[in-house]
Design a protein that fits this description.
Number of strands: 13
Shape: globular
Distance between the termini: 24 Å
Length: about 240
């Protein structure tokens, strides 16, 4: 599904991504605060404590088929039926058209345009996202005391609800549930715990603040090479309730 035919906007899979630099800030919030950002038929995970860990990230992709670009977003835990331990990305912001369209058309990722900045000064990392009135502001610093006292969210599997809107009126002509596994060939060259700060401002179009209040539990910086691969269709032609 590429438009226009014969003038492709994005590359076929798998797509190699080299020189990836990724800053993660791990936060804890009430499990109920996840519910508004997780579309049916996905659900928030069960939690005996009533809290959930989520990730806010910013990444610089240094070498890709699109050239270098930057992405930031939010990753939350979720489940599908009896399958738990998976994640969903309700907010994703990129600064290049090709990967936005490729991610939306092919995989159904809710990617949007934004002014995304990734800055690195030695081991210190700063980043920001601006989209209208919505803001994300990151900073990560290495520290001898910085460590993760918990299990971070996995890189996969990631669940996606892929939707095709009707052309003749409201509603959807097709909805699918996809599972996107982590790349088994990924090579992680560096992992460094970080002390992080994070500021979040939402807007009506980008309600990032729906997960507030939250507590920052820790941060992590990684450098890696990976590839983007095809997903698995878990439910084809899902026609359940619209979100």
């Amino acid at each position: 599904m590429q438009i226009p035919v014969g003038s492709d906007l994005y590359a076929e899979l798998p797509r190699p991504y080299r020189d990836v630099r990724w800053l993660s800030v791990y936060c804890e919030t009430s499990s109920e605060r996840l519910r508004p950002v997780i579309p049916a038929p996905l659900e928030p995970p069960h939690s005996e404590r009533g809290v959930a860990l989520f990730e806010v990230f910013i990444a610089l992709y240094g070498d890709t088929p699109y050239g270098p670009y930057t992405e930031a977003g939010v990753i939350v835990p979720c489940r599908y039926g009896d399958v738990a331990g998976q994640t969903y990305a309700p907010f994703l912001y990129l600064d290049k058209v090709g990967p936005i369209v490729g991610g939306r058309e092919l995989m159904g990722f809710p990617k949007k345009d934004g002014d995304v900045r990734f800055e690195q000064d030695g081991e210190r990392v700063r980043g920001s996202v601006v989209r209208g009135a919505a803001r994300l502001e990151f900073e990560g610093r290495p520290s001898a005391a910085a460590k993760l006292g918990f299990e971070p969210l996995p890189s996969g599997p990631r669940l996606i609800v892929r939707e095709f809107p009707r052309a003749d009126g409201p509603g959807y002509v097709l909805r699918e549930v996809l599972r996107k596994d982590a790349d088994p060939s990924a090579v992680v060259r560096l992992v460094r715990p970080m002390d992080c700060t994070l500021r979040v401002t939402g807007s009506p179009d980008d309600p990032l603040d729906v997960l507030q209040p939250f507590e920052i539990r820790g941060g992590r910086y990684r450098e890696l090479d990976m590839a983007l691969r095809y997903a698995t269709v878990l439910a084809a032609d899902y026609r359940g309730p619209a979100r």
